[in-house]
Amino acid sequence: MRYDGFPADGEFHTIDAVTGRIPLADGVADVVAAVETIEHVENPRAFARELTRLCRPGQWVVLTTPNQLSLLSKLTLVLRHEFNQFRASSPAAVDTTPAG
């Protein structure tokens, strides 16, 4: 999902969450970022290998995932009976399904 604040000159590519395959050649990037994505793919290990395949040697793979063990997440679970990152108001919970 491309966010509104994504830089206009940045390259953005989507993936098939089932296969994790990214339709780009080997070693095409200095930085590959997967922000809170790996928990949604069928095979996380294959996805991580795919991200690494895209990087030039010695460059960066940035991979993030929600931290359900953080103090904020634990407090939200205790007080609101839901994890912080999965609250209805959380960006991760926004429904991106096209209408119709």
What do you see in this structure?
By secondary structure, the chain is α+β, with helices and mostly antiparallel strands. It has 2 domains: about 1-65, no CATH class; about 65-95, no CATH class. The protein is about 20% helix and about 15% strand. A two-stranded parallel sheet has the order 1-2. The model is unreliable at about 90-100 (pLDDT under 50).
The major beta sheet can be summarized as: 2 strands, parallel
Compute the separation of the termini in Å. 18 Å
Shape summary:
elongated
Oligomeric state as shown = single chain
In percent, how much strand structure appears in the residues?
15-25%
Look at the helices and sheets and give the structural class: alpha+beta
Secondary structure tally: strands: 2
**Radius of gyration, Cα only, in angstroms?**
16 Å
Mean pLDDT across all amino acids: 79
- Give the helices and strands as they follow along the chain: EHEH
Q: Determine the fraction of residues in helical runs and give it as a percent range.
A: 10-25%
**Distinct helical segment count:** 2
